[in-house]
Model the fold of this input.
Amino acid sequence: DGKDDILTSAPSRNSNAGETLLTFGASEASLDTHSSVSGDGSTVISFRGKANEYSGYGIAGIGDINHDGIADFAISSTFSGLDGRIFVIFGNSNRAQLQALATQIANVGFQSALNGTNGFSLINPAYSSVAGVQTNMGNTIVGLGDFNGDGIDDFAFTEELVGVVVIVYGRSTSFSATIDVEASLLNPNLMVGIAA
Done:
């Protein structure tokens, strides 16, 4: 709609499920009426995790990584299992569809709701099978703009406890619903990891 939007989060809200609020930009007069946040989709959409998921521990606008002309955003659940998760949600000019996705996420969880066309999940199963290893994947997420010079926005996230920054390349072709970070790091056309 030509107006910038705002992303905020409270990762310990709702029994540590976490909640991320997408507030739509509006005129100053309209913003003044946002005295209460209902997350009903009219001015604010609420994306809620499951209990003890701490969704929203990291959040960021990441540019237009699927190259459809609408900005996208990412939400991390750092304490989802030992490895953590990052959930990318594609922007959509249809607020009703975004609200329907948020409702589906609240019912079945991020990873089940994101199907590759509305967004995708980044997971790191290699670490989840190693006792005592937690990467803090997604503590920090940042949009990079067009990092690799292909005309499409990219983004990066940290795995702080193993000292790695991962850069995820945007693309105009489809994304898989769930992307295994460790496996994808073997393909430099998908993403690249930089050790500190």
User: Anything to note?
Assistant: The chain is about 15% helix and 35% strand. The two ends are 40 Å apart (CA to CA).
